[in-house]
Amino acid sequence: MSLNILQVENNHIFKQVHAPVIQVNELTRKFGSYTAVDRVSLVVRERDIFGFLGPNGSGKTTLIRMLCGILRPTSGEAKVMGYDVVYESEEVKKSIGYMSQQFSLYSDLTVLENINFYARIYGIPRRQRKERIDEVINIVEIKPYLNQLSGSLSGGWKQRLALACALVHNPKLLFLDEPTAGIDPVARRDLWNLLFDLSARGTTFFVTTHYMDEAERCSHLGYIYFSKLIAYGSPEELKKMPQVMPEGYVRYELRIDRLTEAMRELLKMPFVKDATMFSDVIHIHIQQGSEEELQHSIAKKGFFVESLRLVPPTLEDVFVTLTRSFGK
Amino acid sequence: MFQGFFAIVYKETRHIVRDPRSLFLMLVIPSIELTIFGFAVNLDIKNIKTGLLNQDKRVESRNLVDQFVNSGYFDIVEIFNNEEEMATAMRRGIVRVGIHIPPYYTDRVLKNEHVDIQILIDGSDSTVAMQALNVSNAIGLRASIKMLSKTKSLPSQFPIDMRPRVLFNPDMRTANFMIPGLCGVILQVVIMLLTSFAIVREKEQRTLEQLVVTPVSRFGLMLGKLVPFLGVGICETASVLFLMRFLFQVPIAGSVLLLAFFAGIFLFTTLGMGLLVSTFAQNQIQALQISFLILLPSFLLSGFMFPQETMPKVIYWFGQMVPATYFIRILRGIILRNAGFWDLWHNGAILGAMGIIILFVASFRFHKTIG
Ligand SMILES: Nc1ncnc2c1ncn2[C@@H]1O[C@H](COP(=O)(O)OP(=O)(O)OP(=O)(O)O)[C@@H](O)[C@H]1O
Ligand SMILES: [Mg+2]
Prior knowledge:
The complex is a heterodimer of chains A (328) and B (371). Chain A is built from twelve helices and 14 strands. By secondary structure, chain A is of the alpha/beta class. The longest helix of chain B has 31 residues, at 174-204. Chain B contains 14 helices and five strands. In chain B, strands 2-1-3-4-5 form a five-stranded mixed sheet, sandwiched between helices.
């Protein structure tokens, strides 16, 4: 774990070094005897799109709430935009935007009324308010719905509205808690394109998601599992982690009939380190140089191999492997 | 036909058990309330606050006063030196009954001559007034009979003549007495619930999470919630008082402007209570249950239904903690007794102080965090 942090830091010595906007040190939150976030440390730098992943209940929302200054940590410390999340939480709140996991705007207010309300509550001076509201309306392209009650919007438009409200005071850092949960693939892609636009203009993102394709688009990732941050780095770095790609092993994608049966047989073979089933393919780790032996063994069991090709690990592989090795 | 019956019973039982706060409110509160209010429900009015203007002061007059005190119904709490003092105390509601013994009382009694005792009775509480009226008449009657038994001649009238005079609500219309109180109680109920729901709804619908992540200040949030409801409350007060005046024909003896001023203070305090309730409740049902803790005393201990004089001390002090108590005093003072600012200002001051304290506690209890 701490090794990964070192990796990231080193990389930045050679790349352009951006200033850190989130610094988390051993942050912990307990609910009674249950530890929802366990000694998490991480750094997010300016202009990063930091993707935060983890299974349900692993502590993502809890960590975000602490970073937004609305949940007190049990121990540890965190600075967001240079402010301590406990002692300077009001300063933190001024400089960030937050989109919570559930829709939490006023359903009985129209789209425009909601945006207007948040513009006022963030204290945008009256002269700039109109202009800024128009700006965010254009950014999220919600103009056609301005006078609709926000409770009656569809899922994708609700998320856009929530984003507009989180953006209205022009924060340099945005926390988005599962912004794409429950919306269709097209709306999902549109939303991500929007995030990239904003990122290009200098906004830093801290995003949670369960989608691997979204994770691939992040500049940095953190993976939290059972309240602990077990992986942390850029997607490329994660794919190169020794647990994911052990020395002397290679990864193949195997397209084969009778997947479940094949899985069982594969795991019995001595040169196969690991096998993971996807919807129509199996990814296997085998010892370098044992390709022939593999094909031979499969044929002997009477399976039909449609294709076998060398592949780099996907992020899904990374997380599955990490999860599994963490369990051991 | 009864399919699912046991499943539903099972599920509902779980719901009840899982919600210990509501369970507590359901089980404990009724017992507490019955105990408290059982003592308050007492229509046999004793210890009526009474003021004495004794211009005679000799033994005979003191004997008469003793008869009032020993009856158990009158409690002499003030001694006056002149009629003016007595009138002021009546208007302020400090005493409900004033006994005026004339300087020539002893002389007349010793000569077996006729003498008037003036009994001033505050008619703004008709139950109290009725009781005072009956008992003082009875005392007069008894004293007269005692005197008569010593003489042989039969006079044309009773020697000791109690002359009760009901002030402020001379025909003792119950409506005049009940409806101002009812206004106070209804306003408190509606406004408190309305306000407490306003914040609790944000918790229920989770909009609070988005709100507390903004730089809104606690006082900004609290006062901001309060002001629109103050507007609602003012309209409500106006309409309730309008109905009182024109539908129920309760005349307003005092200044409407003064009434509006005190009503403003009362609204502020009540709104604050609504906010305070919302800091305890997680949902609207809980808000309703907690509000009941305050609403029942408003009905039963505020003097609206039962005179506070007759309550045991502990219960009486409960009543003093309810804002409605002070507002009802103000309402009855202005509407029935034509009381002015200086007659009632202490009630307003207590209300205002309560409001400020409540608002501070509510703001203190409200944290811009969740969980
Ligand atoms: N206020 C709370 N009181 C008690 N337990 C809580 C509270 N909030 C969260 N938890 C617990 O902490 C754990 C982490 O919850 P959290 O919401 O952070 O998970 P998550 O990673 O966001 O999950 P998801 O992907 O489902 O959103 C869960 O087990 C949850 O039950
Ligand atoms: Mg979550």
